[in-house]
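Dear colleagues,

As part of the handover before I leave the project, I'm documenting each prediction I ran so the next person doesn't have to rerun anything. This entry is a single chain, and its sequence is reproduced below.
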Amino acid sequence: MWWNLTGMELSRRAAPGRIEFVHRSWPADPEQLAVIRRELSSWLAPLALTEVEVADVVLAVDEAAANVVRHAYGSDEAGVVELTLWTEDATRTENPTENATLCIEVVDHGSCARPPTGPPWAGGGSR
């Protein structure tokens, strides 16, 4: 899954041309979701984001990571959630007045091992 969140003026605190980079993986376990949210929040802290923008990014990544935990691996299969975060500085684009871009990639190595269960209103679609 690819998240490209633009328009957040990340370059206000970053040095010109600087690209931040973080890559981390966790077990695909529901208990790890809180850890992922906390670590992501700390990685976003140096960027020039408002509290609302940080909350929006954390929510989007949490949803993607929760989907990995829920859908990517079978119940007897150990898996991982990988997260990569970087910024692309506006000075590297043709129009340097544009805002920098925050890029986040959430990756799994599963194969959608189990169909959704539960009532249709629980995200499983119509049956």
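The mean pLDDT is 77. The first helix runs from residue 32 to 44.

All the best with the project,
I.
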